[in-house]
């Protein structure tokens, strides 16, 4: 009985944050709207550390994502979970021009840039090394950020994200930017083959490969490296095909990781998402 009690205590202690870790919240006003976020500050955070902004999918929230916090603790970067606002349909989201967001005047590109700057200032983080990742609707926001005139985020990583047709047709990425897309081959919410007729109701969006190819060309990548690795649980039949487009301007790369038989998710059941995203982002530290 005594051994059981000791084991329970040790397990509870193991689940507690290490000394020095912090969780804090913050907010600023952007265009008259309060924009909020939650922070994860690892125990080894130093002045001038990088920042990774993580944004949720449609109807989601700025909740902790352990995969990014483990990577932050290992590599010493701050994590900011930004919160989207309710759109006309009522879902907390990012304004990427879905049909049901028509007339919604929230500028989330501006908001995320201002959130990043506010966080960098408050926690004495690097002003040059900020990165953006997000899942689903957050992934679409990553693509919109890559197409926008902004000087805050050095690279983006959409996870199960999509490039909306209106963005592709109406905008031109103002400069080369590294993009890493992680996507399940059997994602029925954000289909890899695209939805050019808006059958899903999210609006027309590009095939994932074509979206990545846009940045491969924009970044002037010269060739592709491709290999296959097992997933975290090979017995489930899923594995990861890694496409790395390399040799771009100033050494830029664009990555596409396809989780074969994977569905609509953050990918954490099949790959160490936080670690892999940071591996990509860390190539562009200034």
How would you describe this structure to a colleague?
The structure is a single chain. The protein has helices at about 1-15, 65-75, 110-120, 135-145, 165-170, 210-220, 275-280; strands at about 20-30, 35-40, 50-55, 80, 85, 90-95, 130-135, 155-160, 180-185, 225-230, 240-245, 255-260. It is of the alpha/beta class. It has a single domain (about 20-285), classed as Rossmann fold (3-Layer(aba) Sandwich), CATH 3.40.50. The strands form three sheets. It has a six-stranded mixed beta sheet, with helices on both faces. The chain has a four-stranded mixed beta sheet with strand order 9-12-11-10, with helices on one face. A two-stranded antiparallel ribbon has the order 5-6. Helix 2 packs across helix 7. The longest helix has 15 residues, at about 110-120. It is globular, with a radius of gyration of 19 Å. It starts with a helix and ends in a 5-residue tail after the last helix. The relative contact order is 0.13. Mean pLDDT is about 95; it is low at about 1-20.
Summarize the structure.
This protein is of the alpha/beta class. It is built from seven helices and twelve strands.
What structural class is derived from the secondary structure elements? alpha/beta
Give the C-alpha Rg. Answer: 19 Å
- Low-pLDDT residue spans: 1-19
Distance between the termini: 55 Å
| Largest sheet: spatial strand order | 1-2-4-3-7-8
The geometry reads as: globular
Helix-strand sequence: HEEEHEEEHEHEHEHEEEH
User: What's the count of strands?
Assistant: 12
CATH class: Alpha Beta
What helical percentage do the residues reach?
A: 25-40%
Q: In the residues, how many domains can be counted?
A: 1
CATH topology: Rossmann fold
Fourth CATH level, the homologous superfamily? Alpha/Beta hydrolase fold, catalytic domain
Tally of individual helices: 7
Largest sheet: 6 strands, mixed
Strand portion, in percent?
25-35%
- Tell me, rounded to a whole number, the average pLDDT: 93
């Amino acid at each position: 009985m005594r051994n059981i009690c000791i084991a329970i205590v040790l397990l509870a202690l193991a689940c507690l944050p290490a000394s020095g870790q912090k969780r804090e919240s913050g907010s600023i006003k952007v265009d008259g709207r309060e924009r909020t976020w939650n922070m994860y500050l690892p125990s080894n955070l130093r002045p001038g550390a990088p920042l990774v902004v993580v944004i949720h999918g449609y109807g989601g929230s700025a909740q902790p994502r352990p995969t990014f916090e483990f990577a932050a603790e290992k590599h010493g970067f701050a994590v900011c979970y930004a919160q989207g606002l309710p759109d006309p349909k009522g879902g907390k989201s990012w304004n990427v021009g879905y049909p049901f967001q028509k007339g919604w005047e929230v500028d989330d590109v501006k908001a995320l840039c201002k959130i990043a700057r506010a966080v960098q200032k408050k926690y004495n983080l690097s002003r040059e090394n900020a990165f953006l990742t997000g899942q689903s609707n957050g992934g679409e926001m990553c693509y919109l950020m890559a197409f926008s005139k902004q000087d805050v985020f050095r690279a983006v990583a959409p996870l199960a994200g999509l490039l909306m047709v209106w963005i592709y047709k109406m905008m031109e990425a103002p400069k080369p930017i590294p993009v890493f897309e992680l996507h399940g081959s059997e994602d029925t919410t954000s289909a890899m083959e695209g939805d050019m007729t808006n059958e899903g109701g999210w609006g027309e969006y590009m095939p994932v490969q074509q979206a990545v190819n846009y940045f491969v060309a924009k970044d002037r990548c010269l060739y592709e490296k491709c290999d296959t690795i097992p997933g975290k649980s090979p017995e489930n039949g899923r594995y990861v095909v890694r496409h790395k487009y390399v040799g771009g301007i100033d050494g830029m790369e664009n990555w596409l990781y396809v989780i074969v038989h994977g569905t609509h998710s953050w990918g954490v059941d099949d790959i160490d998402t936080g670690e892999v995203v940071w591996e990509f982002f860390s190539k562009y530290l200034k």
